[in-house]
């Protein structure tokens, strides 16, 4: 049901890719007299343009007449990144603003700085250089591993702070003339920011994340429809922010000020726009399953001739009416986040899913016309034992039997997919101080699961390399010493695995040693 893009094809040659990209919704402005900001997602165009936060900040800055905001991404062919809209070098901008959702992209952040010719460390950059600022989900949890490289961090929701930043920077004559004075001015005028050069790596006064209190004052939706993203056939709309569930491994409940729901009456214009521009509307929100109007959203979109798509759901949120609307929208896969197959661990992580209800959900979904099922699980959760792993394998086998039997009776057999992911301690969560399970033990637990599942047909197991948990954990809960690991990785061609033996003591201290209650965590100066 994909609508045709209105804009002509725009080729990304000389901008880091050789793909022909068609976009609808990009903003191009004259530069003269405007504050010039390059918004950078430190990953490829395909990944960056799949991120709704990038769309939101891009739109908010370009809504200000005195600001021109263009985009840039990680080059896929090693060329120097340039802005997507005008092809300018990034050093021509007044501000280079990075938005970072995932810690692994810190490696790409340093690569981009190097490619555009900027000194990596903030202390080595001069007054005439662009100001380097950074925000995003990963930064709002813990900026310490990249603190030496960034001039100014922004914590929390961006809807209001981006305007504050633009107004403040336009009001001062110091931009690109006196870096210290512009940073002092920002620190004095804008709340929710962190300037390591002025405050040190652990400020004496706490810094409160910016929180958007009135969520129904801003629409967060796809702004630029592109043919080259993970969601090229979906118009994304954020319907909630925060989460009431307080799962102990997930940061959303602990970094957001509260759970806030957008109302249908407010979202109708976004849904109508999505139906008109793309045809399929994807609903986003960590608390999607808790939204009191979730069924009404789906009903409205379908009744207007659109199709609806949902991200992963909690088991208890899945009912016949919702599944019926999804099937009507040609969504053939139902995705459920279970995290563990052990009822004991469900209680430990505060997930509270009753696993014995899963059979009913599977049957209901398949009866309604769903073809495929996908489940997410985490390996290495705190207190996890071999018995919990065996219970997970037993749950998968039970669901597999029921899935095959029901599918055969209906005359079609789809695929059951299981995604296994290592537990990564996240700052701000109740598990933030827990030690990580060593790679060898993660691999042992994975092999045990695979042995138990051997020979099962129509079962697909997805997992990352288990050693990537080292990188993710160091960058997630590391202090400023982790910046040296990043710098060594950059200097060695981004090969982080080669740095593991050299930084073994840092890794032991950071991720394999549990923290006591008296331990001061490096991100504890950030509050909500």
Structural commentary:
The model is unreliable at 1-14 (pLDDT under 50). With 528 residues, the chain is of the alpha/beta class. 34% of the residues lie in helices and 16% in strands. It has two domains: 9-208, Rossmann fold (3-Layer(aba) Sandwich), CATH 3.40.50; 215-465, Alpha-Beta Horseshoe (pyruvate-formate lyase- activating enzyme), CATH 3.80.30. The protein has a six-stranded mixed beta sheet. It has a four-stranded parallel beta sheet with strand order 16-17-18-19. The chain is globular, with a radius of gyration of 24 Å.
What is Rg? Answer: 24 Å
Number of domains: 2
Topology-level CATH name of the largest domain: pyruvate-formate lyase- activating enzyme
Proportion in helices: 25-40%
The geometry reads as globular
Secondary-structure class: alpha/beta
How many H/I helices?
A: 18
Q: Which segments are poorly predicted (pLDDT under 50) over 5 or more consecutive residues?
A: 1-14
Assigned CATH class of the largest domain: Alpha Beta
CATH architecture descriptor text of the largest domain = Alpha-Beta Horseshoe
Mean pLDDT: 93
CATH superfamily of the largest domain: tm_1862 like domain
Strand tally: 20
Major β-sheet profile = 6 strands, mixed
For the largest sheet, list the strands in their spatial order: 4-3-5-6-7-8
User: End-to-end distance, in Å?
Assistant: 42 Å
Beta content: 15-25%
């Amino acid at each position: 049901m994909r609508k045709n893009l209105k804009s002509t094809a725009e080729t990304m040659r000389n901008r880091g890719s050789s793909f022909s990209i068609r976009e609808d919704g990009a903003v191009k402005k004259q530069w003269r007299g405007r504050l010039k900001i390059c918004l950078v997602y430190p990953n490829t165009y395909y990944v960056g343009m799949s991120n709704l936060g990038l769309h939101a900040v891009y739109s908010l800055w370009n809504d200000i007449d005195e600001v021109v905001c263009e985009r840039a991404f990680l080059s896929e062919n090693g060329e120097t990144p340039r802005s997507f809209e005008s092809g300018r070098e990034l050093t021509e901008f007044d501000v280079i603003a990075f938005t970072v959702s995932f810690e692994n992209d810190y490696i790409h952040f340093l690569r981009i700085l190097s490619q555009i010719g900027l000194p990596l460390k903030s202390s080595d950059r001069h007054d005439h250089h662009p100001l380097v600022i950074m925000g995003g989900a990963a930064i709002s949890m813990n900026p310490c591993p990249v603190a030496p490289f960034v001039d100014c961090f922004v914590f929390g929701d961006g809807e209001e702070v981006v305007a504050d930043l633009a107004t403040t920077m336009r009001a001062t004559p110091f931009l690109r003339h006196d870096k210290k004075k512009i940073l002092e001015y920002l620190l004095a005028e804008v709340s929710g920011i962190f300037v390591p050069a002025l405050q040190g790596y652990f400020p004496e006064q706490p810094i409160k994340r910016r929180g958007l209190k009135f969520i129904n004052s801003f629409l967060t939706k796809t702004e630029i429809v592109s043919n080259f993203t993970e969601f090229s056939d979906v118009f994304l709309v954020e319907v909630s922010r925060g989460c009431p569930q307080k799962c102990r491994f997930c940061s959303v409940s602990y970094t957001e000020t509260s759970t806030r729901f957008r109302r249908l009456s407010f979202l109708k214009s976004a849904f109508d726009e999505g139906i008109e521009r793309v045809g399929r509307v994807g609903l986003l929100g960590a608390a999607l399953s808790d939204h009191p109007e979730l069924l009404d959203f789906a009903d409205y979109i379908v009744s207007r001739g659109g199709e609806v798509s949902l991200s992963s759901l909690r088991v208890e949120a899945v009912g016949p009416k919702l599944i019926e609307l999804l099937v009507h929208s040609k969504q053939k896969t139902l995705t459920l986040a279970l995290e563990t197959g052990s009822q004991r661990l469900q209680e430990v992580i505060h997930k509270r899913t009753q696993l014995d209800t899963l059979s009913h959900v599977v049957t209901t979904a398949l009866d309604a016309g769903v073809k495929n099922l996908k489940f997410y699980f985490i390996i290495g959760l705190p207190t996890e034992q071999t018995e919990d792993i065996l219970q997970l394998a037993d749950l998968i086998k039970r669901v597999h039997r029921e899935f095959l039997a029901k599918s055969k009776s209906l005359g079609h057999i789809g695929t059951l997919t299981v995604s296994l992911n290592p537990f990564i301690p996240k700052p701000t969560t109740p598990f933030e101080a827990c030690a990580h399970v060593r790679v060898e033990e993660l691999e042992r637990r994975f092999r045990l699961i695979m042995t138990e599942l051997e020979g099962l047909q129509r079962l697909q197991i997805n997992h990352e390399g288990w050693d990537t948990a080292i990188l993710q954990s160091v960058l997630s809960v590391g202090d400023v010493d982790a910046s040296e690991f990043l710098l060594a990785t950059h200097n060695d061609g981004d090969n982080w695995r080669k740095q593991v033996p050299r930084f073994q003591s840092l890794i032991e201290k950071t991720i394999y040693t549990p923290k006591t209650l008296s331990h001061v965590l490096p991100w504890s100066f950030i509050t909500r």
